[in-house]
Each structure stands twice: as C-alpha cells, then as structure tokens.
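Z., the sequence and structure:
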Amino acid sequence: MTNIEQIEGLLFVAGDEGITVAEIEHATGFAKPAITTMLTELATRYEQDEDSALMILSTENTYRLATKAAVAPVLKRYFEAPLTTSLSQASLEVLAIIAYRQPLTRIEIDEIRGVHSGSTIQKLVLRQLVTETGRLNEPGRPILYGTTELFLDYFGLKSLDDLPAIDLAALSDAEHLAPETNLFLNAFQDKLKGNREEN
C-alpha cells in the first residue's frame, strides 16, 4: 500500500465530516508537510483525470472527498428515489441502529456496521426518516443523527419508547442482530410493501 493510498482511504472513511492534517498524521505517522504535499498531488490527480468523479475539498485545514459537479444530476436522481421504493438491507440496518442508539454520529454507525454508511444515511435524510439533531462537542464537531416525527408516524409509534425492546449490545454486532431487531426490520419492510400496494 502506498502512502497516498493510505491518505485516500482515510479521506473516504472520513466522509462528509472530513479529516484534518493532524488526524492524518496521527493515523499514519507521516509528517505534516508530506501529508499536505500528498493531498495536493491527490487533488491534482483527480482534477486531471476526466474519468474520475472525485475531487478534494478543503476548508479550515479539513479535507473532504467529494464528487465533481458534473455528476450532480446522476446523484440527484439516485438520492431522490421515492419513499415507496423498497429500502435496501443496508438502509434498514442503519435506520435500526439510529432508532435504537440515537443520537449518534456517522462514524459510530460505521463502527457498528463495519462499512462506510455516509450515502445510506444521506438517503434516509432525504426520505425524512432521519435528521441531524446537533453536533458532538469534539474535534471536527461530527453531526449527530436521530429519527424524525415521520419515522414515528410511519410506524404508528407515539414515541421511541414504543420501539420493541432489544438487547442494545446486539446492535454493536450487525452480524448477530437480536431477533427483536430482525422483527423490527421485517416489520419495516412489511410496512413499505403495504404502502406500495396501497399506491
């Protein structure tokens, strides 16, 4: 693995919250000037590659991997899929994790699932099932996510206290979700299926 590959990987998993040079230094052990040089080289590489949809944004010493403006129409259609289309297993997992563990950050969700969840969270936000509830008071001030009133209405819940009781420790191991959690996910899928049939 090259040094630039390591930085590119960190930019990817940092998602829309971005990553600072200091955080990259801590994770890789590279010197700050070298990190800045590699970030510039990577940005130039993306800019010159017409087949790459990626670019690097930087604000106040925080770097983010982003998509070029040219692919915005395709991404807009992807994220605007109507609510009546079925949610993927990944979306259901993220929704269950947020419902039971809120408020929590995208990094915390990634740690539970073991994969990057940024785009999945964004889709749930656009479907108004999940919303930003604030920011964590730590470096980078990552966004905290929680469920919405629509989420409660959709499931016929008066409050989050009405969610089926589960072992929260099970949500720390997505491969071994508790039966109660699977019931929640199955109920959610049935609800979506019912809505499609009504429409």
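The radius of gyration is 19 Å. Residues 179-198 form the longest helix (20 residues).

Let me know what you think.
H.
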